[in-house]
Write a structure and sequence with these properties.
Chain lengths: ~270, ~375
């Protein structure tokens, strides 16, 4: 499998985008809709399926497209290839606040299991597949559902998730309990399981839900601090237009008098 | 030199990368040789290593051992693990059986789980199908439990809606005529109230609770008060038999089920609005006809008017125009007409007192429909 080696640079703090540099003839695949800008000489090509070259025939393409449909990705992948003479750049932006993490699949043994929607872009040759979560309990209560994404290849791939992304290395047998929904990606050698929160009182009033996701090493895992759904929930709750309450604005006294006085006073 | 089969694996433990370091495994008799690049980093006896199913979906094979109290682990990917298993010495092979069993049970449980989940997902749909299949008896059952008070309220809301949509005629010969016919038909039943709506369509309907609305267009098309009486008697019969209520419950129930299953609660509102457009089954029409005729006979009104009026509407050449509204909800099928005539013929000759209404004056008062 021919992998293209790409140089990249990540810009921004909380709302990031990644700029990928392509040598002449090199290509990158991006999630449809993720492209932010591209320089002259970069040609965009939309291919049916996942853009990895090894799938042959109509049926193979159909399978690839079907997989993407199940993972919730769009049916078409966009390939950006450099038809110019010199190095050209193309940028892919993250769709919501969070971090973009570059991963070299070669270092990870060639395969990475990640949350669906986590994929942002990759060097051409990285193939996107689906990985069914086959432990029913984990699928139901693990926070990631039954369908996960599988990245195969040995090139560079960029994944994106909400909040701050934490990369952790688990030693053989080492376990980590994670809030459900916070698992972004892990090596296939990592066990992904669930564990009952333990005590009924904790489960009901602890605010952490009934189950933890449990990751057991060895291998690397990536966690997100703020799943998009959690942020969306807070935004909707705080939005008067969506039936929420605008608490922060407060009353006349709290908002104008006190806030104004304090805000104005600190300026002087 | 004998070439030995090599198996790619990843080594986790002291001296390895966080993501594991690629190593190559070979069997040398009872010894497992672990090489990283050209260097042999471990040589293990087959009995030393502890195999286990590991990783995402238990799809990986883990070989674990302790050296100097520190845990080491080798991870073999699915296809490689299969080949490795076949080549390994008996001492390890029999201990690999439980690993394979664990992997198979994960697969099996997944398949069963999917079946169960699919079943659960289809359950509401199945319930919906059953409810639709048994909609009629269910609706009848529910209607029997609707108290008259609710019925009256539905009638009131239909009346309010009629008032909002069209002007009610509350005086003049047409109003008087309808009230006179109504009084004769009601025969002392106090819950029946008659209204005339100033609308051009040929239509009449009765709402639950005894609200009977007749539209001016129907009065215009009628040639005698007996014809109007026939239509009113038929509509009253629908109310008495609670046909409208049953249809409403059925339609609302099916819609509510759909909304519940599909999670669309917004559509539940406003289902009462379609009362005037309800279609009844042939049985319901026949029943209402028979009951209507009986009521006409009790009121000593010529019962032939009903059949005459519907036959007349049906025969009218509708030059591109839509059928009269009353016909679209009460299709004058040949079967129905025959049943009406048969019922008429069987009825004992009753005393008939003609309705003393100057019909020409009524029609003159209504005038031509404003178009």
């Amino acid at each position: 499998m021919a992998m293209d080696v790409v140089d990249y640079e990540v810009f921004g703090n909380e709302m990031q985008y990644v700029e990928v540099e392509l040598d002449p003839g090199e290509a990158a695949v991006g999630e449809a809709g993720a492209m932010m800008y591209m320089q002259d000489g970069i040609e965009m090509d939309t291919v049916f399926g996942d853009g990895s070259a090894q799938q042959g025939g109509f049926f193979g393409k159909l399978m690839g497209a079907g997989k993407r449909l199940i993972t919730g990705e769009s049916l078409f992948t966009t390939v950006f290839h450099n038809e110019g003479n010199g190095k050209r750049r193309v940028a892919f932006a993250a769709p919501y606040p969070g971090k973009i993490v570059p991963l070299d699949l070669g270092d990870l043994g060639g395969t990475l299991i990640c949350q669906k929607d986590a994929f942002l872009c990759a060097a051409k040759g990285v193939s996107l597949g689906i990985a069914f979560q086959k432990k029913i309990g984990v699928g139901l209560f693990g926070g990631e559902g039954f369908i996960m994404q599988k990245l195969d290849g040995d090139g560079l791939a960029f994944i994106h998730a909400g909040g701050t992304l934490k990369e952790l290395a688990l030693a053989p047998g080492q376990t980590l309990r994670v809030d459900t929904g916070c698992v972004v990606a892990f090596q296939p050698s990592v066990d992904f399981d669930i564990q009952f929160a333990g005590k009924i009182k904790t489960a009901l009033f602890g605010g952490e839900g009934l189950f933890f996701a449990v990751l057991r090493g060895p291998g690397k895992v990536w966690l997100q601090s703020l799943p998009l759904s959690r942020m969306a929930d807070r935004i909707v709750r705080a939005s008067p237009a969506a039936g929420g309450r605008s608490r922060e604005e407060g009353s006349m006294l709290g908002g104008l008098a006190l806030g104004g006085l304090l805000g104005g006073g600190s300026d002087e | 030199m004998v070439t030995r089969a090599e198996y790619a694996a990843r080594h986790f433990g002291p001296g390895s990368a966080d993501a594991g370091s690629p190593v190559v495994l070979t069997w040398r008799e009872q010894w497992l040789v672990v090489r990283r690049g050209e260097d042999v980093i471990h040589t293990l006896r087959a009995v030393e290593v502890e195999p286990a199913a590991k990783g995402f979906n238990n799809a990986q094979l883990a070989l674990e051992w302790f050296a100097d109290e520190v845990r080491h682990m080798l991870i073999l990917d699915g296809p490689v693990a299969l080949a490795f298993r076949q080549a390994c010495p008996p001492a390890l092979q029999h201990r690999l059986q439980p690993v394979a069993a664990a992997q198979q049970s994960t697969e099996r449980r997944f398949r069963w789980g999917i079946v169960v989940l699919a079943f659960l997902a289809l359950l509401p749909l199945a319930a919906l199908g059953l409810a639709i299949a048994f909609a009629d008896p269910l609706a009848a059952w529910a209607v029997d439990r609707i108290p008259p008070g609710v019925e009256a309220k539905i009638g009131e809301s239909v009346l309010a809606q009629t008032q909002a949509e069209s002007k009610l005629i509350t005086e003049g010969p047409a109003y008087e005529a309808v009230q006179a016919i109504g009084r004769r038909l009601a025969g002392g039943e106090e819950n029946l109230r008659f209204f005339v709506a100033d609308r051009p369509e040929v239509n009449a309907f009765a709402a639950p609770g005894g609200v009977v609305v007749i539209q001016a267009g129907l009065l215009r098309r009628a040639d005698s008060p007996e014809e109007v009486a026939g239509v009113l008697a038929h509509e009253i019969a629908h109310v008495e038999l609670r046909h409208g209520l049953r249809q409403m419950v059925k339609a609302a129930g099916v819609r509510m089920l759909f909304a519940l299953v599909l999670g669309d609660y917004g559509q539940m509102a406003g289902w009462g609005a379609q009362l005037t457009e309800l279609k009844f089954s042939r049985d319901a029409e026949r029943e209402a006809d028979a009951r209507g005729l009986a009521r006409l006979a009790r009121a000593e009104i010529d019962p032939a008017g009903l059949g005459r009026f519907f036959a007349k509407l049906e025969a009218t050449p509708s030059a591109g125009a839509a059928l009269p509204a009353v016909l679209s909800t009460h299709p004058a099928t040949a079967e129905r007409m025959a049943a009406l005539e048969a019922a008429l013929a069987q009825m004992p000759p009753a005393t008939i007192q003609p309705l003393a209404i100057d019909w020409a004056a009524v029609r003159a008062a209504l005038g031509e429909p404003q178009t």
